[in-house]
Prior knowledge:
Helices cover 47% and strands 9% of the residues. The protein has a two-stranded antiparallel sheet with strand order 1-2. A two-stranded antiparallel ribbon has the order 3-4. The protein starts with a helix and ends in a 5-residue tail after the last helix.
Amino acid sequence: MSWTSTERYRIRPAPGGLALVQELLNTRAIAPYGEDVLADGDSGDRWLRDVTAAWAEEQGWPGPAGEPRAVDLERVRALRERLAALVTGEAEPVRAPTDVSLRPGLDEEGRVALVPVGGPGEWLEAAVWAQVLLAQADGTWQRLKLCREPACRSAFYDRSRNNSGVWHDVRRCGNAANLRASRARRKQQAAEAPAGE
């Protein structure tokens, strides 16, 4: 499956269903990689239609009912923000349940699957929450991160052995952060140095 929003950052997709979550997070605009995919109706509708059709086909599920509408894109943008807060650990508890529908199904191996239903926005939201739940249950959720570089914040799957990755690209984002830290240390040292030295 092609994950166009994630691939534009030159990031390997996360394994399994976390790739769907990562793809949604990576629809945000980050210079110089590209614009917000969900910012306008044309690109947002196209992305929503393509990603739901591809995910449904890959999973062997029926796709969403109907075509994307403006309310679907609003729903997906709100979901993207909630997911970003969840990934960074800044999400507020939600006492009222999200209005999505999942129905139990069986795959070819006889395993239970949570199958999303509804219009495109609801369908995607249901599919994404199901994948978050499964990733939390299997222990892979904590490996989905947002790049620590403030100008980036792309979603990546930390494949490091000890789960210590903080940048989606060490050379690009890591070097920028290290350069800023080095400049700040030199500036601090210069400010603390006695006059005349």
